[in-house]
Amino acid sequence: MLIDTFGRRINYLRLSITDRCNLRCSYCMPAHGIEGKRPARDVLSYEELREITQAAVEIGVEKVRITGGEPLVRKGVVPFLAGLSAIAGLKKLVLTTNGMMLEEMARDLKLAGVESINISLDSMRPEVFRKITRVGELSRVLAGVEAAERVFRHVKINVVVMRGVNDEEVLDFAALTLDKPINVRFIEYMPTTRESGWRSLMVSGGEILTRLSHRFRIEKEVRDSLEGPAVNYRIKGAAGKVGFITPISQHFCQSCNRLRVTSSGMVKSCLFEEQTVNLKPYLAAGDQAGLREALAGVARSKPSQHAFLVPGSADSQRFSMSQIGG
Ligand code: SAM
Ligand code: SF4
Predict the structure, then answer these.
(1) Considering the domain boundaries, does residue 171 fall inside one?
(2) The dihedral of CA 110, 112, 114, 117: what is its sign?
(3) Residue (of 115, 141, 117) closest to 22 by Cα position
(4) What ligand 2 atom has the least distance to the C-alpha of 29?
(5) CATH number for the domain including 142?
(6) Is residue 169 part of a domain?
(7) CA–CA distance, 247 with 230 (Å, rounded to integer)
(8) 267 occurs within a structural domain
(9) Which ligand is nearest to the CA of 69?
(10) Residues with a CB atom less than 6 Å from ligand 1
(11) What total number of domains does the chain contain?
């Protein structure tokens, strides 16, 4: 079991398998893609990603989320996932996707051992969806959501709420849970690209909850230990749930259980932490013990809370979410 210096049990790895993406969401990437995109050789091979996962499981990780960039654009992802799901001791293999390729791939992902899927969908209005993603086609994502619903028991829809962009849609998103057993999670917008004025875009989870409470009768749900940071509610009588992920207004650092590894092999203990450790030398040397120790060392040195809570730092920390994996 892996316990950090603040007594938190670290059992969740977010593994980014590519920094490439078939969308260009305004809050995640510049319109022309990532500056200084990595040459393909910088990206870890599937074998290396598997070794990292194996080492992470050996030190106490029980849940792995595959992310990116867009994980489904990487060739060979299905057999890679089948290999990961066979790792003894890994209890949950899950994946986050923009849904663009899900209609074709949902069944194969399930057969490969993926237990549940998070789909990022910020608008159900075609023109707003296109404005946010710059190149996305809403109909493809909606078809992907339907395919996922047919195949997976747990489907979550992640909505990054932005004032004046898609915040008018929070009631529509919540209403989706009335008949469908999906979990719609509202995520606070985080300032990760170089835009100024991010605070005016951010709508707090509290504000969204108030708006929902004016329309629906809402009850709080009991928390599950591998569930992650979302605080969940249910509209009375609804088949699904609504959740709130509030990294800005009400951070959940005290219960954070995660490690992150980027597609180029850098391990980070926090999304907002600048310090990283490069795992490539251990992979190149075939040093499994070193790999385990490097992962455990980063986990133990996890900061008590993220840097947004330090006055002024939120404006100096900038990175591309697609490189870290959200
Ligand atoms: N491409 C996949 C997708 O979009 O689901 C996986 C990678 S994406 C970086 C992971 C998550 O990070 C998505 O749910 C996305 O909405 C979220 N994200 C990216 N930038 C964000 C930001 N600035 N604020 C809040 N969430 C963000
Ligand atoms: Fe791509 Fe996901 Fe970033 Fe959107 S949020 S640009 S889909 S990586």
Answers:
(1) yes
(2) negative
(3) 141
(4) 6
(5) 3.20.20.70
(6) yes
(7) 10
(8) yes
(9) 2
(10) 21, 27-28, 67-68, 70, 96-98, 120, 158, 160, 187, 189-190, 192, 321-322, 325-326
(11) 1
